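Continued from yesterday's entry.
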Amino acid sequence: MQKTIEPSWDLTIDPDTVRLFILKAKAISAALSDDYNDGAEHEVEFDGNLRDGHHHDGLAEEESENLTEKELRALIGDLNVDETAELIALAWLGRGDYEASEWDAAVAEARQRGRRRIARYLLGMPMLGDWLEEGLEAIGA
């Protein structure tokens, strides 16, 4: 009987860091879903006299920002080239673009993207948190 050899994944990026990204990405996604599901939250309502019925706190409301997204962008920006490539490769693995056996190819392809607009690219993935989680599971990390 032949023994199956498990591949050893020597990640540059700490799996716990990826798990932090997963939590933040899921929080961002949940906030977007809640906002989308509410629908009318940001709409202006008019009463019978065509007056603005939308009550707000002026500029304080307009300046509110999603700190979770800002934090995640900063954390992604702090990654080195290898960590960035692995993070992208994990997302691709979780999304099904690559199999775990193609890990090296996924990382090489991710490295070709360079470091420009990585946070924007990753945060543009609608299921980033889930895909990162599935990517980690695929490589057993």
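--- second protein ---
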Amino acid sequence: MSKQEPLLRDNKDRFVIFPVKHNDIWDAYKAIEANFWTAGQIDIQKDLLSWEELNGEKRLFLNKVLGLILSAERNLSSLTKKISNKINLPEARSFLDLQLVMENTHTEAYSMCLNSFFNTTQQENVFKDIQKIPATSAREEWIKKWTNSNSFAEKLVALATAKSIFSYSSFATIFWIKNCGLIPGLCFTYELIYRDKALHRDFAVQLFRDHLLEEISDKKIQQIIGEAVAIEKEFIADFLPLDLIDLKIKSLTEYLEYESKRLFTDLILNRNLKEENIAKENLVNKRAQDYSQINKTDKEFNKISKKTDL
């Protein structure tokens, strides 16, 4: 399979990027290039003043959120590297090489925020707590399982899933803090990184849908996404003390379910459709409904709404 896939095939005859052979991939690369930023653009001086307004509970919450995000960033970078090393298409490699640089910038920016608010002991304690959670091991095993798969299609679905699911609950809590008008530097960092992850997610989906010959069943896609959702729900339930900021677990899990449905729809849209006159929207809705039935864990997660209490 690897010898036949255009993404994985050797391109020894292409010494320069021009002429571009895959304009849609190159356009995606230019889009990510246009959004490039550095940690030096983050100003947290006002955050240090806002910090004085936060009580001990909210400070504890932020320590946990930042620790959880940094823990996830380490896993996501390793996932990107493993997949990038398999791809030989020059246009795609340009995107993924820059994505790795941006992921390093994400880690630097969040590390800068964490180091500004918490001393070394507080940082070490939160990372130790994260390592003790069963969900941490489950996430690492999930990444290992799907990146070691013999199917490159499964690898791409895993990359899109990781960018869509892991850390999104943490992002949602920072969005809540942003609405409260607190910690503007951290919230600006969140906005930049959220935008980047959306670009990374969409690119993985684009490669999967438009540049892959290998077939993969909807059931397998459901499995990959469903496992990631279950792991992220564990983090929400077992680690994030949402009660400290009066945020509802149900709101966060509904948001997570919505993101998972949106990803599934994006991945399967236009794949395996042989005739242009097929009612695509109806097919997508049916598959998304099937996905919900297969992966729901309780009756609360059966109804997904774009409008939450976040």
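The longest helix spans residues 56-84. Confidence is low (pLDDT under 50) at residues 272-285, 294-310. Will compare against the first tomorrow.
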